[in-house]
Amino acid sequence: ALAVPAGVYMLQDQQLQAAELERTFIAIKPDGVQRGLIAEIISRFEKKGFKLVAIKIMIPSKDFAQKHYHDLKERPFFNGLCDFLSSGPVVAMVWEGEGVIKYGRKLIGATDPQKSEPGTIRGDLAVGVGRNIIHGSDGSETAKDEIALWFTPRELVSYTSNAEKWIYG
Ligand code: ADP
């Protein structure tokens, strides 16, 4: 072990605990990336007051896509969906904030963009259910699993935003 004083670890642990609000996994799918919607989508989460704690761009393998969507493996569109997710760059992100899992889904809108309200990401920016540009975790268990699938713990950045006192009071 490195000669690091015990207190240093303590401080890091406390900081992690103190900073950790609810987190969700959000991905801009290949259609959103190809259509030049990365900044538009990030902007909606950012302007709401949620905090970006991890981000990367990658082309997932088909095997990886199947892991991500394992809950849907019995669905008829599963294979096409996994082919699609692995067909190009995906922007993978973790967003943090009070109620971010549920409200993130609200920002995203219904699965079928035809049923998404105007004002939502899919409602405003997408048309077809197979090209609905964004993914967001649907609950706290999936959020935890998806964050762990897409990111290593070291890629998650815990920090306090100066805006937090203006967002949460
Ligand atoms: P969500 O992404 O809103 O959580 P699901 O988990 O039910 O929705 O489905 C995952 C993804 O599978 C959807 O975002 C969509 O891209 C795709 N999908 C869902 N239903 C269909 C369908 N009927 N036909 C083609 N693709 C679909």
Automatic annotation (TrEMBL):
Q: GO CC annotation: what is one?
A: chloroplast thylakoid lumen
The UniProt record lists the Nucleoside diphosphate kinase-like domain at: 21-158
Q: Where in the cell is it found?
A: Plastid, Chloroplast thylakoid lumen
The broad enzyme category this protein falls into is transferase
Gene Ontology BP term (one): GTP biosynthetic process
Principal localization? Answer: plastid
Query: Does this UniProt record's set of keywords contain ATP-binding?
Result: yes
Record's keyword annotation contains Transferase: yes
Query: Which positions are catalytic residues?
Result: 135
Which keywords does this chain's UniProt record carry?
ATP-binding, Kinase, Magnesium, Metal-binding, Nucleotide metabolism, Nucleotide-binding, Transferase
The source's domain of life comes to Eukaryota
Catalytic activity, as annotated: a ribonucleoside 5'-diphosphate + ATP = a ribonucleoside 5'-triphosphate + ADP; a 2'-deoxyribonucleoside 5'-diphosphate + ATP = a 2'-deoxyribonucleoside 5'-triphosphate + ADP
Entry GO MF terms:
ATP binding; metal ion binding; nucleoside diphosphate kinase activity
Q: What does this protein do?
A: Major role in the synthesis of nucleoside triphosphates other than ATP. The ATP gamma phosphate is transferred to the NDP beta phosphate via a ping-pong mechanism, using a phosphorylated active-site intermediate. Shows the highest specificity towards GDP.
Q: Which family does it belong to?
A: Belongs to the NDK family.
**Quaternary organization:** Homohexamer.
Q: What is this protein called?
A: nucleoside-diphosphate kinase
Organism ancestry: Eukaryota, Viridiplantae, Streptophyta, Embryophyta, Tracheophyta
Q: Which part of the entire sequence is included in the shown chain?
A: 146 to 314 of 316
